[in-house]
């Protein structure tokens, strides 16, 4: 049973990742001169095109490619799906596959995605995890916040621009639905902070349950059931062997002597991993969608939703090597029934059938974010502004009795989020009505282009992967106790700290973040453990509500909301959780 489900409060504990860090061997990055950077290629990845390079601040400048990439995603029910690991289970798939198709675009492209909901009895929505959605907040895919769900038999077109580059993913935000298979990866091509020869593309790692996610979520609500069950398997790019030996290992081929870019993504519902590759190190070049100065790590902790772009150099013997995903023994970062989750990385010329023989050194799996990264484009927040004002988000796990049954409810500052599928917050803004329900957990941020600071406090032992929509954020600091409101500021880093859109809020401590109000819209900040957000662990930042009608096309809401409102009274499965 996963202890990650049971926790009593929100104040976080930050323990530095116990991975070794070594400087990368490539020459240090240097800004290009007035004559530009040259041609993008294996020997010059820092350059892109048209005077855009790794030093370009993506928040203020992006290429105008003039291109729109179009994709069609059809979501269907499958009563028996066994391609993942040989065990048959019901699933919801995108275009008949798991994970769904990879969306590939270049930095600056527009992306048009037609989503067709062919599920019989479920709505859906697609959130583009990590994509800022600047001036397109209505395309964020967060039902109850930025849109109504797409009803069965209906379609919706999402249109947005890639302001960033790197690795992201997409998933349903309709309750815990993505755990049934409604998930895929995103690759946005652009410059890189280190050179490489081969781009291997996205490499997703996820927990896998034979029971449907909606049943697990409903079971997890009841206090009498305790924590949700262990995951039945861990999949690598959608496949793995099962506990009885069926299924197959995921295999990736490396070219001897070449440097390979691998785009790691944790797309789990609950499980976090420490990843490593026997005999090899990772040169990290990006955290989520933020390019970083290259740094070598033996292991990387990956909580739910996080991404790392890494370079693996094939400089060892021509053999097969284990790529391991290890769970912490504390059980606070999820548990699985599979004993040794692993994929196989094979040098070209090695046996295509034999398993690796070297198990490698046991990994000290942790339950805290890996640290030691420096963003290439430097940003900092003013300490004096933090001293003037900061918000506090205290989270508690309550167990109210409803209809004589004790249930779990997560509260942020005393309130569990519960969104209205038929009336998202952007609809309130469209109508000029600011009287939304208290349980929408709206936090109004009115000022333009200022830094806003938030201290998350966790009173329980279980960590939470906290994800912010519409922004990445500065991780100013964290600790294993409640934040000291007098002396704590001295422990924070305001000078180019790590930036990302998911950070682990450790148990029993605090996490301090900051972001700029440069993107009007309704932006969720939520735990990415499905059982936690479905029971209330989220707030919604309403950023510059007066500017939303000027920057976001709110008329886009009505066609889909009209369809949903017509369907909802006849829905077989009415909303039974937070809706997220």
Automatic annotation (TrEMBL):
User: Keywords, A to Z?
Assistant: Copper, Disulfide bond, Glycoprotein, Lignin degradation, Metal-binding, Oxidoreductase, Signal
Please identify the protein, giving its name as recorded. Answer: laccase
State the Pfam families in the record: Cu-oxidase, Cu-oxidase_2, Cu-oxidase_3
Against Gene3D superfamilies, the record matches this protein to: Cupredoxins - blue copper proteins
What is the scientific name of the source organism? Answer: Verticillium dahliae (Verticillium wilt)
- Signal sequence interval, chain numbering: 1-21
Domain spans labelled Plastocyanin-like: 82-192, 202-350, 428-546
What catalytic reaction does the record list? 4 hydroquinone + O2 = 4 benzosemiquinone + 2 H2O
Tell me which family the UniProt entry assigns to this protein.
Belongs to the multicopper oxidase family.
Enzyme Commission number(s) of this protein: 1.10.3.2
Any single biological process term in GO: lignin catabolic process
Top-level taxonomic group: Eukaryota
**Has UniProt tagged this entry with the keyword Kinase?**
no
Obligatory cofactor(s): Cu cation
Q: What is the lineage of its organism?
A: Eukaryota, Fungi, Dikarya, Ascomycota, Pezizomycotina
- EC class of the enzyme, as a word: oxidoreductase
MF-aspect GO terms: copper ion binding; hydroquinone:oxygen oxidoreductase activity
């Amino acid at each position: 049973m996963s202890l990650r489900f049971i926790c009593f409060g929100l104040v976080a504990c930050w323990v530095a990742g116990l991975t070794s860090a070594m400087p990368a061997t490539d020459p240090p990055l240097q800004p290009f001169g007035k004559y530009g950077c040259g041609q993008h290629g294996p020997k010059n990845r820092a350059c892109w095109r048209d005077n855009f390079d790794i030093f370009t601040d993506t928040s203020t400048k992006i290429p105008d490619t003039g291109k729109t990439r179009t994709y069609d995603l059809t979501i269907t029910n499958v009563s028996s799906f066994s391609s993942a690991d040989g065990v048959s289970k019901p699933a919801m798939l995108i275009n008949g596959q798991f994970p769904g198709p990879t969306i590939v675009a270049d930095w600056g492209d527009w992306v048009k995605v037609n989503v067709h909901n062919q599920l019989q009895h479920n709505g859906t929505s697609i959130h583009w995890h990590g994509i800022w959605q600047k001036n397109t907040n209505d395309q964020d895919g967060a039902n109850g916040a930025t849109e109504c769900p797409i009803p069965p038999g209906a379609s919706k077109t999402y249109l947005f621009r890639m302001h960033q580059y790197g690795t992201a993913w997409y998933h349903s935000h309709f309750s815990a639905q993505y755990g049934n298979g409604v998930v895929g990866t995103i690759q946005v091509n652009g410059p890189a902070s280190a050179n490489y020869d081969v781009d291997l593309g996205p490499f997703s790692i996820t927990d896998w349950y034979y029971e449907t996610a909606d049943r697990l979520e409903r079971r997890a609500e009841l206090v009498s059931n305790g924590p949700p069950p262990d995951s039945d398997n861990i999949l690598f790019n959608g496949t793995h062997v099962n506990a009885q030996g069926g299924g197959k290992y995921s295999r990736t081929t490396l070219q001897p002597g070449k440097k390979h870019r691998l785009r790691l993504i944790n797309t789990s519902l609950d499980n976090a991993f420490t990843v490593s590759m026997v005999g090899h190190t990772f040169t990290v070049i990006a955290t989520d969608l933020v390019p970083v100065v290259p740094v070598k790590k033996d292991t990387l902790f990956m909580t739910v939703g996080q991404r790392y772009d890494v370079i693996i150099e094939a400089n060892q013997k021509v053999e097969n090597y284990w790529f391991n995903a290890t769970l912490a023994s504390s059980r606070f970062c999820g548990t699985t029934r599979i004993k040794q989750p692993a994929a196989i990385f094979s040098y070209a010329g090695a046996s295509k059938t034999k398993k690796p023989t070297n198990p490698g050194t046991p990994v000290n799996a942790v339950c805290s974010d890996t640290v030691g990264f420096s963003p290439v484009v430097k940003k900092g927040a003013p300490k004096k502004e933090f001293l003037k004002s900061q918000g506090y988000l205290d989270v508690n796990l309550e167990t109210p009795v409803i209809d004589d049954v004790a249930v779990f409810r997560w509260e942020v500052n005393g309130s569990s989020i519960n969104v209205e599928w038929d009336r998202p917050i952007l609809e309130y803004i469209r109508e000029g009505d600011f009287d939304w329900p208290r349980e929408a957990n709206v936090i109004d941020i009115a000022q333009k282009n200022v830094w806003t600071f938030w201290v998350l406090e966790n009173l329980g032992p279980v960590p939470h992967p906290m994800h912010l929509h519409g922004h990445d954020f500065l991780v100013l600091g964290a600790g294993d106790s409640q934040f000291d409101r007098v002396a704590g500021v001295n422990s924070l880093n305001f000078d180019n700290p790590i930036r990302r859109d998911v950070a682990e809020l450790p148990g029993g401590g605090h996490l301090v973040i900051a972001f700029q109000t440069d993107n009007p819209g309704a932006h969720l900040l939520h735990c990415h453990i499905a059982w936690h957000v479905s029971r209330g662990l989220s707030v919604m930042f309403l950023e510059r509500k007066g500017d939303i009608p000027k920057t976001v096309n709110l008329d886009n809401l009505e066609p889909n909301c009209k369809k949903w409102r017509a369907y909802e009274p006849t829905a077989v499965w009415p909303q039974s959780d937070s809706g997220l």
